[in-house]
Amino acid sequence: MKITVIGTGYVGLVTGACFSKMGNKVYCVDIDSSKINGLKNGILPIFEPHLGTMVRNGQEKGDLVFTTNIQEALDDSNIIFIAVGTPMAEDGSANLDYIFSAATDIAENISQDSLIVVKSTVPIGTCFKVKEHIDNILTERNINIHIDIASNPEFLKEGRAIEDCMHPDRVVIGAEKEEVFETLKDLYSSFVLNHDRFVLMDIKSSEMTKYVANAMLATKISFMNEIANICEVTGANVQQVRLGIGSDKRIGYDFIYAGCGYGGSCFPKDVQALIHTAQVNGYEPMILSNVEKVNLNQKKVLVNKVVDRFGSDLNGQTFGIWGLSFKPGTDDVREATSLVVITSLIDKGAKIKAYDPEAIDEFKRTIDEKYLDSIEFTKDRYSATENCDGLILITEWKEFRNPDFELLKENLNEYVIFDGRNIYDKKITQRGFELFQIGC
Length: 440
Ligand code: NAD
Prior knowledge:
The protein has 440 residues and is α/β, with parallel strands linked by helices. It folds into three domains: 2-201, Rossmann fold; 211-297, N-(1-d-carboxylethyl)-l-norvaline Dehydrogenase, domain 2; 299-436, NAD(P)-binding Rossmann-like Domain (Rossmann fold). Helices cover 42% and strands 14% of the residues. It contains 16 helices and 14 strands. The strands form three sheets. The chain has a six-stranded parallel β-sheet with strand order 3-2-1-4-5-6, sandwiched between helices. A six-stranded parallel β-sheet has the order 11-10-9-12-13-14, covered by helices on one side. A two-stranded parallel ribbon has the order 7-8. Helix 16 (405-411) links the parallel strand 12 (390-393) and strand 13. Helix 9 (203-234) packs across helix 11 (267-280) and helix 9 crosses helix 12 (286-298). The N and C termini lie far apart (53 Å). The model has no long low-confidence stretch (mean pLDDT 97). Bound molecules: nicotinamide-adenine-dinucleotide.
């Protein structure tokens, strides 16, 4: 098949690379010429395991083309995916400017019947508005071509994006016509060869499914974080409670880890957008509003523990930070807990030494520059602990799991560890460490 993917960000790039891996010809279009030039020269805009090899192979075979020229792409495609960003607007709604500007670009350049598939996460009803927008421009252009629209939300996880895309748990397709379902099933059949994983539905339900998936996962995390906070005040241990409830098949073990809050480009904005959608339609969501509140509170839990231990004036104190990305396996720091923890500690007078295997550059670009003078970024994990008054673990990268505790003792002024992801065994207290965890 011949495919155009508009938006070469996390989703567009990964999806485009995976489609090309399956033998399709794929054009990845972006308005960011530096990103496209970089990709043509083998420079990836994101860190994602296995993506580099796939992009390189696809380009070498001529199956994967990066371009800023949408017309070149559309002239040679009959399926067009929209995978541009839908960031959070100030009122919490999804900002659809990129979606409609992509729709305008398509409508102004398209010259043949096509299927347009919205892969971006968009509020319920957006696909129909996109089709109407395109049809209006085609009428103005006085061009008689037929456009079909479909919704095909993306469920990949950053850090495992290629695996998720190549072996999806499910492929959700929202459409109105049997032939649209068939076209998309043909495209995806090579990804789900061992058994049928298609979930077919109407367009609005498909748009809603994406929000509900993220809202459900965010709710599980916030629920468990709330339980962790109750465990702390009652003397129970949330890690043991987790095992106690996870063994119930109706509950399961996934996404019930307590920690220092969720971040990333999706959960915070998608929960907010769903709240907004409910409100503009006259429904006040009670659970969702509190999922967000619990999470904002949870991002401050580590800072509160530092203040309880060291006092609220942190002048003269230096803290080592392990992990800046919002989760392991990615360099994405959007809405990361590290931003809240580091800025709050610096506001209280502290200095920071920080290490992350992948996310330092992104973090430097994202944090307010006024904080940069107070942060020393290090090239390895142990240097970030030298002469520090405590170590704060925020992101559970594998290299932090089993550190050399004796070396940490040599480096740290005080043997204090704040473990924001509950990865350390309480036994380290027998080696002289003070260990502060979440809910245990
Ligand atoms: P991103 O910000 O990484 O990338 C978006 C890209 O679109 C950018 O490169 C931007 O330059 C480009 N763009 C904007 N307007 C354009 C236009 N008119 N023409 C061509 N390119 C244009 O975004 P992302 O993280 O890939 O997310 C895209 C969508 O997928 C969002 O709706 C997001 O919620 C959803 N999603 C993201 C993830 C994830 O893990 N990142 C997972 C599932 C779904």
